[in-house]
Amino acid sequence: MITFDRTDQSIFGRWWWTVDRWQLGAVALLMFLGTVLITAASPPVAERIGIQDTFYFVERHVMMLIPAIIIMVGVSLLSPRGVRRVALGVFLISVVLVYATLVVGVEIKGARRWIHIPGLSIQPSEFVKPAFAVVAAWLFSLSRTNPGFPGALVSMALYGITMAGLILQPDLGMTFVVSAVWFTQFFLAGLNLVLVMGLGGLGVVGLVGAYYTLPHVTSRINRFLDPHAGDNYQVNRSLEAFANGGLMGTGPGQGTVKFYLPDSHADFIFAVAGEELGLIFCLGLVVLFAFVVLRGFARVFNDNNYFVLLAAAGLLIQFGLQAAINMGSSLHLMPTKGMTLPFISYGGSSLLALGFGMGMVLALTRKRFGPAE
Fold this sequence. Notes:
The chain crosses the membrane at residues 22-41, 62-80, 86-106, 180-212, 268-294, 306-325, 345-364. The chain is mainly α. The protein is built from 13 helices and 3 strands, in the order ααααβββααααααααα. It has one domain.
């Protein structure tokens, strides 16, 4: 076991005694539970789609989990200034790639969200999500510390550019999450309340417009409001899984929903957990996600740096909202949306982006004994 003395002044020594080890441990536990659940849920999926290697998805998940951990730890070593610079670089590259998907992206289920390179598929919007939260926080904080700098206007312009790319793909789920985080940061920044309300109104108009102009959005909302309005196969199987699991579950590996749900290793992995491990485990998982978010807020609210507060708040809200959307969709509490359960679901770009986002959270919530830069 690696240990560091309090007098150790090496990079990792200082990191170990300043990082939030409770939050780091909670994230590590989520990663471990995700690996266990994917091991249980993915073999039937591999068999169903004709992959000879039963543990193909498990191996791929672990292969992506290792660089995600490296990214998380590496980014968590940065100062707030370093976080800003890295986030800006990632944001600019990711936005360019989002628009590139419209030209060279591969169309899957009517959407162009992925760029395929040999051996890997990249979803650029996953990286836009955490990077934009930090860039927006930076701009909002500059508006406060430098009254002559039009940080809010620049943030609005970048928001518009980002949203246009996501809507054109189209990716309404990602658009909603990025918008919800940005609006929250806008509000926390203490900017003009009338402008906040006006932007909120535009958001509502956008959702209504999406309902009437995008057939897949119309279908999902209609099926949520009226179960008989269309095919609710995945949701119905998911609800059956929770009912079968009961309080304690059927036992690890004993569930059946993974043999029927196409996305049991990804979007509906929470249903596999509900069937095999039961209600108590699922509630524990909810508590674990809540702990990561609330622990982060508890740490950052003690910081006097405005940028750190806004950036960490945006990243934590994003993390919690993504978890809530995934679990809510599995329980039919909201329309279904293809969004992974953080560190639990199978995913490549999602896992790397989550490692990047959580690395920034750990960096921003580290103890500092001087002014944050």
